[in-house]
Design goal:
Blueprint (H helix, E strand, L loop, with lengths): L2 H17 L26 E2 L9 E3 L16 E6 L7 E10 L5 E8 L5 E3 L6 E3 L2 E2 L1 E7 L6 E6 L9 E7 L5 E9 L9 E6 L5 E2 L26 H9 L6 E4 L5 E4 L1 H12 L3 E5 L7 H11 L7 E4 L17 E5 L1
Parallel strand pairs: 8-13, 17-18, 17-19
Antiparallel strand pairs: 1-4, 2-3, 3-13, 4-12, 5-11, 5-13, 5-14, 6-7, 9-10, 9-12, 15-16
């Protein structure tokens, strides 16, 4: 290779990289889906908390008196602060780092549970962790340490799910994101909780108005032929999808990162309470991850999805979603 090409190539790469528009930062398992349990972070998330304290809980699990339904998907996470001064947090290594000098919008759904029954760390007596707390967002470059505070919410004192839009403007690059329950103010430690769900992609401000929008499915439609395309047309269009992902918004301003066709497919399946079985041929196995991601983004419970890597149509009479039909598709 000529010497001048070796010199120019790094310069060209730097120029192209610096002129590219800022890209969204994607969150893995932002819907916080996993098997309901206590003392366990959901898939793709790690526990960031005090040594000797229990990790956050995945709800609904029938414990602690928490009776909320999820804001999105099948599960959500509860974070608490304790009267011994400790708090719960979850974190994730980002697929791409937050850039310094770029501002991002990050939407998280949150609420407070009127009951979060446990034991006081200070008195060892039964206690209700039902006081409001704030939700703080940290950026870091290690799992839990060397982190900087990026944003703090108002006190989360509302009982129903509401979105919180954080403005994150990092002063340096971060490749880890941490969400933590925080007490309202400095003072005597107390017991409180915040429930979180549906953590959405971090969208740079300059792309908020330019994102492609998918055709949205009206969730209030009871059947696909009432104001929506038929299942036959929807399936045909979905199967032609090449599996490409994009970022788009729904009419409520919620951001998604998925294949739009598969996303609409699963949103329709949710509306019609339809269980889905997809038989993947050997040549379409690359779609498995795309399909699972779209199902998560659409809030489709993964326990109602079957992915079989063969051509056989297997109808399991015990596999139903609220006694509705099982949709079997060959890919």
């Amino acid at each position: 290779m000529p010497h001048y090409i070796k010199v120019l190539m790094p310069c060209l790469f730097f120029y192209l990289h610096s002129t590219l528009p800022n890209q969204p930062v994607f969150i893995r398992n932002g819907s916080l889906e996993d098997m309901p349990s206590s003392g366990k972070p959901p898939r793709e998330w790690f526990f960031c908390g005090a040594v000797g304290e229990s990790p956050p809980d995945i709800h609904p699990n029938g414990l602690f008196g928490v009776t909320k339904a999820p804001a999105h998907g099948a599960t959500f996470v509860g974070l608490v602060v304790r009267d011994n001064g400790t708090s719960e947090a979850i974190g994730q290594q980002l697929a791409s780092p937050l850039k310094p000098g770029v501002c991002y919008r990050m939407r998280v759904y949150a609420c407070r549970s009127e009951n979060y029954l446990s034991y006081s760390r200070k008195t060892r007596m039964p206690a209700n962790y039902n006081n409001p707390v704030r939700l703080s967002v940290w950026g870091g470059n290690q799992l839990c340490y060397n982190r900087d505070l990026l944003a703090v919410s108002v006190p989360v004192d509302w009982p129903d799910w509401q979105p919180i839009d954080f403005d994150l403007c990092p002063g340096k690059a971060y490749n880890h994101l941490i969400l933590e329950a925080a007490p309202l103010e400095d003072g005597e430690p107390y017991n409180g909780n915040v429930l979180i769900d549906f953590i959405q992609p971090l969208i740079p401000y300059d792309t908020l108005a330019d994102r492609p929008e998918a055709e949205m499915v009206k969730m209030e439609d009871a059947k696909p032929d009432l104001g929506r395309e038929s299942w036959e047309t929807l399936i045909h269009r979905t199967l032609r999808s090449q599996g490409l992902r994009s970022v788009f918004e729904d009419p409520s301003g919620n951001a998604y990162h998925a294949n739009p066709d598969w996303w609409i497919f699963f949103r329709t399946a949710v509306a019609d309470e339809m269980a889905v079985q997809l038989n993947l041929s050997a040549g379409r196995s690359d779609l498995e991850q795309v399909i699972r991601e779209a199902a998560l983004e659409a809030g489709y419970p993964l326990n109602h999805l079957r992915l079989k890597k063969n051509r056989r149509k297997t109808r399991d009479p015990g596999f139903r979603w609220k006694s509705r039909q099982l949709l079997v598709i060959d890919l």
